[in-house]
Write a structure and sequence with these properties.
This protein is an alpha+beta fold. Helix content is 28%, strand content 20%. It has eleven helices and 22 strands. The strands form three sheets. Strands 1, 2, 3, 4, 5, 6, 7, 8, 9, 10, 11 and 12 form a twelve-stranded mixed β-sheet that branches. The chain has a six-stranded parallel β-sheet with strand order 17-16-18-19-15-20, sandwiched between helices. The longest helix is centred in the middle third of the chain and has 42 residues. The protein is globular.
Length: 689
Amino acid sequence: MTAELVRGQNHTLPQTRLEIRVSAGTPVVAGATLGDEQGTVHGVEWIAHPGSPQLPGLEVSKQAAAEHRLAVDLDALPASVHRVTVLLALPMGVGGPVRFGAAAAPFVAVTGLEGTEIATFTLTGLDSESAVAALELYRRQGAWKVRAVGQGYADGLAAMLADQGVPGAQELARSVHEAVARGMDRSVAPPPPRTPEGDRVRRAGAASGQQAPAPPSAAPIGDPAPAATPLPGPAQPRPAGGAVPTAGPAQGPATSGPINYAHPRRRSAAPPPPPPTAPPAEPGRPARPVAGDATGWSMEERLYNQVWGMFEDLARTTAAYRSAVDFAESRMDQELDRALSDPRNRIGGAGDRAREEARTKRDQLTDRAREALDRDLAQLAAESAVVEPALPAAYAGWDNPVWHAYRVPMEIPMALRIGDLHLPESADLRIPLLVRLPLERGIWVDSGRTASEAAALTGPDQLRRLAMENAVAHAARLLAVYPADEFSVHVIDPAGSATAALAPLVDSGVLAAPPAAGASWKPPTDVNHPRPPAASAPYPVATGAGGVASVLAHLTRRVDLVQMAIRAGAADALPPDLDTAEQLLIVNDFPHGFDDRAVTQLRYLADEGPSVGVHLLMVADREDASAYGPVLDPLWRSLLRITPVADDHLADPWVGHAWTYEPLRTPPGSRVLQNVLAQVAAARRSGRP
């Protein structure tokens, strides 16, 4: 999985022969320096640059270009080299941008020779700098690692080389720029910006903080990391992925002009199909948005990338607004301190005038920032208005008409929507929270009280009921987006307290049959349950300690057998009674009914299950499990935490936002959930011999 680094973060390199790929919105000079254990560069012979592009174990480009590939063989470096620093600089005297803040943020990826990304870093937050130390590869205890640096220098390449101890840094920087200027007629120009009617390509302009790199290898957008973990995306969320979105600090004050929608990281191995054409824009107005105008091989992938791009645009424009407001407050405080530090201004009206002037400037800056934010939010809201109705069922809310035309699919989608995200500055603008499929981690629906206003207004019993209903809706979505008989759901409800919430799954007959030692029927504790299942059919929900043990043993056996088959390369040797479909285990009211052995098995399933198609969907209050102590901490950390009511718990390390998560709900009185499950059950019955 690709590690998306932020400034200062490091990542172990699994191999020593690498490529470092650079993508920028304008031609840049790429070079590298070799340093000792202290990072000191002892002479010009330790520097690879366009005038001297090759060193032992290192080769850089011979000219300025919008995209670079640097070759690195760490094993071939001299033994005295402990650090390789990758440098980027804007060429001087050739008519291009003179500061990185006037161009799209550079993107750097460390890849294997086959193109697989190992780590990526987007250099956001640059402004007046004309040179930057992008990242460094360094030796630590016999192993090599990569660290995201992003250290910019407003005084350019000479200052950056001098900071690394290079003798004659000024003369060397001058010779590098002269060599670049002589070769600019051969330089690779950046791809021309596409019009709003065309593809959603890399960002250009100061309003952008990230851009889509061009390397051909495609890497899934990760978790929202993970996106609670940072947001998935992009599995990604980004993110991502998904997780989840990562990158550097918040942007500065918002700039003029509408934001440019572009998905920054999604790549394709070849040109994707052309996206839809946007309607022509009115003079003086931005082009009207079109659903599916991101890059991708299919409409589904383009919509996925477009949603991820909307998430990043909302994060960026909000970060710019918050940064501008903080700057205005800080400036007002500084002006007041300067004015009132003079004792003469503390008497009479001078002090009052200084305070009034400082507040007026603060208000002006804040108002301009708010105008920019409102403009960007209006553009995003317009895009959301056309994207939301066009989403496929897996990405759509339960109120989307696409569910009324639902048919059981033939293949699984890229991702699944598990909720919506919004920020306080734009509570009405909701971004779908998509996680990649197959699931890379389990989900935990937190049934405990949180600090949110919605949770404070909801009683404990109602929270538990909503949490279980939320889990059932997620399970129904997973069943609906998988082909028939390719996804199975097991339920553990030790006390039988979730009978009413489980009714849609039980009554439709989509739950997996209980194991051989399955649990017997336990009378429902909720009188609102419409009817008990027929006496001839075993109740498909595991209840009591025996039911818990039986289901956990069954799924643990499946994980063990599939892992052994994979390691031995003998998938055809699996027992004929083994269900090879993806498995989902819903656990209600944990840890009630779990002994130490069951807890150990549950942790094992959380850790090892996702890699072989066994996933957890837990409904639990973490406080209820406090008796187990820290033994369960790894379990909670391995799951994506969501809530049954709105809560701002999803952390975004990309710009530091706390996103508010909104669970998906079916419209009041709607039977869309039951109708979808009925079609799933019918498809399963018709597919059986």
